[in-house]
Sequence to fold (551 residues):
Amino acid sequence: MNRWYLHGLIIMAQLLFSCSFDPIAGSKGGSETTNGITACITQSDGTPAAGSIVRLRQAEFVSRPAVLAKSTLSSADILTDSKGYFTIKDIDPGEYSIEINDTSKAYGRGGAVLLNCPIDSTGIKSFGVASLKPYASVSGQVDEDVIRGCRSFVQIKGLDRLAMINEQGEFSFTDLPEGDYSFVIVEGSGVSGSERAIANVKASSGETATVTVKNKFNDSGYVIINSYGSGISPNAVLIDFPLLLRLDKENFDFSQALQQGEDIRFLKTDGASLSFEIEQWDTLARKAAVWIRIDTIYGNRTEQRFVMKWGDTAVQSRSNGKEVFKNTSGFAGVWHLNENPGSGSNSIKDRTGNGFNGTPCGTMTGENSVNGMVGKAIMFDGKDDYVTAGKLNIADNYSLSCWVYADDLTEAARRFIWKEYSYTLWYDAQGKGVRVEHFTLQDTVVVWRGIYQDNSRMIPLDTAVWYHLAGTYDGDKIRLYINGDLADSTNTIGKYPVSSNELLSIGGRKDEYVKGIIDEVRIENRARSADWIKLSYLTQCENNCIVKLIR
Fold:
């Protein structure tokens, strides 16, 4: 192809783009304020990717099967010039996907790159230099109850792509640029084909990803975990971590889901299901709090993602705290304290399934159920309110934790977690500080050991402030964490807590009752790491920026 012929093609493509492709690409032409995008595209060896096809589409763009019932596109929006450059001007503001393809196969070349960006109304946004990479592939399997025997297609949001689903429910794409995609599954062969499901998948250059669509969901999004710069160790690997996802009117349309969130589901990007528990789902207030068990979370990652789906009106809830807070993952007892404490015996549920359900004591009623750090919590009156929760003993390493909002820390001791002759996390009003201790046998004498007895100090708290308190014992030392940070540790203790027949108490014992709010109590039979406790605090506190839902 000679230079002048190529130049003519580029001019024709630009003219076509500004006219014929206006409804798709959003080019408006004649704007008084010039805006747009520009980039230089190179091959993997750094040479210009001249003549590559550039397609600009709105991020939510999806064509109908009647338009796209073909294996490949037969025309291009624009081409890169002889030096690999392209510029598109006068674009309506919004979110866009820009796909660049070099379809040539000669001399080992060819490949694609995907650019995603918001475009505003002023200026030309430059991507600088972007290099083509080998194509990514995606293969998928769609369950029969999704396609229902109809002629069905898979489309990709933001790209001109379509694949037919065969009779076995299989589909594939072999020429995608590397990126994260939402795959829309539709029925019918006409423009009115109805959307039935969305699957999300990460496609990597030179690799084949797989995705399975198991249910009929109308909408989905990515839940993003960003641990970078959080204070978590770069080498951290946290297994079976219960991650809190908060939903509100800013990130979720509650009108699209069922009344109690029965239709929500969570999946890894390969389609594998993730266990979850809905602690709070308030459609009227447009607030929700959901715990999801993530099999592995890494430190120092700007992005780990999984999929949230909703919108299938024919499903039942899969909320299951037992699968999130599994005993095999180290959870001995977990109490959200979001129940009505006026409901009587065993009404305060242990979410692990170990059976340590709590019984409210004292004079508590439904009015003691108040807003907590996560959903509802219990307010204790400092006089006679507490919750008993069975004879939960710890024979090895452990972690104790809870959220506390104290109204009064003077005069009496305040027992947040208390098991007589075994273990405790509390506030010493006389010494003015937090204490973590366990009862242990030392040379035939049973004594309390911990913070602050074993060369540690008393760390005070303020009233009317939420604190996340955690104490751990790893067979060597007891450590105290306040708001995710290590506050102090003991000398070597070297003895585990003894067991007792006394009842576990949340909120106090005689003359040492808590006056204030307690939320999210956990007793674990493992000494959680500093990274685990830090991430627990950061992901549970209000306005956290580590976990977010992206539609």
User: Anything to note?
Assistant: The CA atoms of residues 401 and 470 lie 4 Å apart. The radius of gyration is 29 Å. The helical segments are 3-19, 22-25, 65-68, 144-147, 321-324, 530-540. The chain has three domains: 3-131, 222-326+544-550, 331-525.
